[in-house]
Amino acid sequence: MVKNNEYNSDSIKILEGLEAVRKRPGMYIGSTDGRGLHHLVYEIVDNAVDEALGGFGDEINVTIHENNAITVQDFGRGMPVGMHESGKPTPEVILTVLHAGGKFGQGGYATSGGLHGVGSSVVNALSESLQVTIVREGHKWEEDFVDGGKPVGTLRDLGKTKEHTGTILTFKPDANIFSTTVYKYETLAERLRESAFLMSGVKFTLTDERVDPIRHEAYHYDKGLEAFVGFLNEDKGTIGSIMTFEGQQEGIIVDVAAQYNDGYSETLLSFVNNVRTQDGGTHEAGFRSAWTKAFNEYARRTNLLKDKDKNLEGSDVREGLSAVISLRVPEQYLQFEGQTKDKLGTPEARGIVDAIVNETLSRFLMENGDFGQNLIRKALRAREAREAARKARDESRTGRSKNAKERLLSGKLSPAQSKNAAKNELFLVEGDSAGGSAKQGRDRKFQAILPLRGKVLNTEKAKLADILKNEEISTLIYAIGGGVGADFKVADAAFDKIIIMTDADDDGAHIQTLLLTFFYKYMRPLIEEGKIYIALPPLYRVKFGSKKHDDQFAWTNDELETITSQTTGRYELTRFKGLGEMNASLLWETTMDPESRTLIRVKIDDGVLAEKRVTTLMGDKVEPRRNWIEANVSFTLDEAGSILDTVDGDSNSSAVFEKTRQKQKNMQSKTTATKAIPKQSDTQPKITTWQNDATSSDTNESTNLNLF
């Protein structure tokens, strides 16, 4: 390796202005994938929210234009338009200078959620074009920027106007920076809906001009956090009424709403100055501590916990709890861990939230004795289930359980030869037939095969104790390792990739959904860390000659149409109705070989939406599921298609299938099945409610699916 020993003053580079943002965008917005793309919108919306929090403006409008440019309009005071002391127009300073804004002194905002005051300038830096329009003091002003924040001319006075004051900012993200520049309607809708819940009396709208007819929704809630919790529990069986707590200490305002449901998971959402803190922080720590403490003190006061009994753990008392925490934190106390505000670091917040929640919850439990005692009994049942789950995890590591583990896995799991968990893969394969081909075709060094023989349990409807008695689920738990439920440790899992490999039909989709539900409910860290995948076997093989390298494969009906329309010669068309129809070498070549396969990584972009979809589609209540299906799905008699099929144009239409039927005449028998085709392009191609996000992870594993 050749070393360059030149290290002098010429080696030191200063990144001027917004150049630093373009050079290292991840430092400012977290990533340059879909998550970072949507973060740009959040930053501008957060600025508008800051105006509304200050009492200026009661409406914020967001528009997705046909070219995926974004417009955010507020009706606040409008950016100042005078000359800044730097000699530039103030809007230009705000939009081109890092750490310039009204959030650093005490005169602009009492509380703010902006990105350390750099949000709008970062958006400008990462956009190919940006235009700001300001209505202030009876005049309309405008300025344009291109190529990452370069001003085009200067601030222009467009003349007098009677329009309401405010700021309109339109930007188009730079395709050279982001791996995708296509916005997801549902992702933005969820963010605006959350903001509307948090800001009673402020109206948020979202318009999508990319579809015909134009899609438009408005979000406006008068009951705030109470309405938010009602939304979270909408399709669940609720227990008791919604509890609300509020208080203030040292200028920090705390609002909490919570309600129990008959489910087994906890949903806790936290916000600081209207910004979601996805990774929690000191305020969540204070809430959890207070909630556990108040319930244990009440349980002992009412003798439901005896002196000899251990205290209930936090997961016991929060089972089935849906809660929202909202803090207003003054600028002088505001500390986030990391630039993207995902985790609150303010030390004072923990003690303040703990004190307010503990006092108000303790009083509530004493004033509602019967309800409080029912919740304690519920927590005791949760503890029993937790201890059973922990026992199952411990047994998977002890010699005492080796016989049970070997009995469950014997004849089922074909293990990998390597013990390197960082490289090993586990294929969950539908049926013994496909499992046999997979076992023969795999690379034994690092690929393990587990055929799924029985029916996979719907774990959304079952208690953990019953889940652990199910043989298929128990086999899965033992094979993966790491435990189950609250005690699951992703670091202890035996595989780096868990790959679901099923037939491309409705039964296969059903199995995928049941498995994803289990992973979501009881091994969620596997999804959160990107370790759950769906294999994508081809639907068709088009054979043009006798040589194997002449074969072409199609994963969607569109791809098949493209291949067959480009040839005038003879060809042989094979439709794979199941994995079992592929021999071992073909399955390896198309679906299992890391050099040539395509895997779909499952991820969760929006936890609230994922939880609601799991509850709606997999829960006990029939009516919400029927309503969702009627609103989102139309049924046609057609071939079951690929998960990558789209609904634009004729890509999922009978016309395509009819053409392939004519071309396949006399080649093979055909099977007609009922297929669910969503009505809208932003819903999913099967009732399994997934959504495509063509974001690259690497060459052959290039597609992500948002879970529900």
Quick structural gist:
The longest helix has 27 residues, at 369-395. With 708 residues, this protein is an alpha+beta fold. 34% of the residues lie in helices and 22% in strands.
Commentary on this structure:
This protein is α+β, with helices and mostly antiparallel strands and about 700 residues long. The protein folds into 3 domains: about 20-220, Heat Shock Protein 90; about 225-395, Ribosomal Protein S5, domain 2 (2-Layer Sandwich); about 410-535 and about 575-630, 3-Layer(aba) Sandwich (Rossmann fold), CATH 3.40.50. It has 22 helices and 25 strands. An 8-stranded mixed β-sheet has the order 5-4-3-6-2-1-7-8. It has a 7-stranded mixed β-sheet with strand order 15-14-16-17-21-25-24, with helices on both faces. A 5-stranded mixed β-sheet has the order 9-10-13-11-12, sandwiched between helices. Helix 3 (about 35-55) packs antiparallel against helix 5 (about 120-125) and helix 10 (about 345-365) crosses helix 11 (about 370-395). The longest helix has 27 residues, at about 370-395. The radius of gyration is 28 Å and the shape is globular. One of its GO terms (cellular component) is chromosome. Belongs to the type II topoisomerase family. ParE type 2 subfamily.
